[in-house]
Amino acid sequence: MPAADPDRLPVFVYGTLRPGGRNHRAHLAGRTTAVRPGTLPGAALHDGPGYPYLVACPGRSVHGELVTLDPARYAEVLAALDHLEDCRPDGSGEYVRRRLEVTGAGGEPEPAWVYLAGAAVEAALRERPALIASGDWLRR
């Protein structure tokens, strides 16, 4: 189900921000209203030094969760996630945040915020891939 406010999208989490992950506890636990399964088509999951990166890749998909942030804390939590992911307004950070279509458990695509590898990280991964074939960080 799409978010009512076009700027207050759920966040697609696929690594350490997933429930049970160390960054979920630190940044999302108690700050969400819903967590649902989701799949991002057209992306590949790569193993970084202790955390994953997403890179656009036709024919692949990544599994994770769609996390609905508590509306009262939405801006605060999204800013904290941007900081955690080194997501910079100019796009030069370790990750970039993009609005992409994620397929929910019911099979319907919906918009969500997704953190992708930033340009420098993506270039390095394309040169030396560290692909997680399952597309699932929990099954790596």
UniProtKB/TrEMBL annotation:
Coiled-coil residues = none
Q: Where is the Gamma-glutamylcyclotransferase AIG2-like domain?
A: 11-138
Signal peptide residues on this chain, from the entry's feature table: none
Q: Which domain of life is it from?
A: Bacteria
For this entry, the protein name equals: Gamma-glutamylcyclotransferase family protein
This protein's species is Kitasatospora camelliae
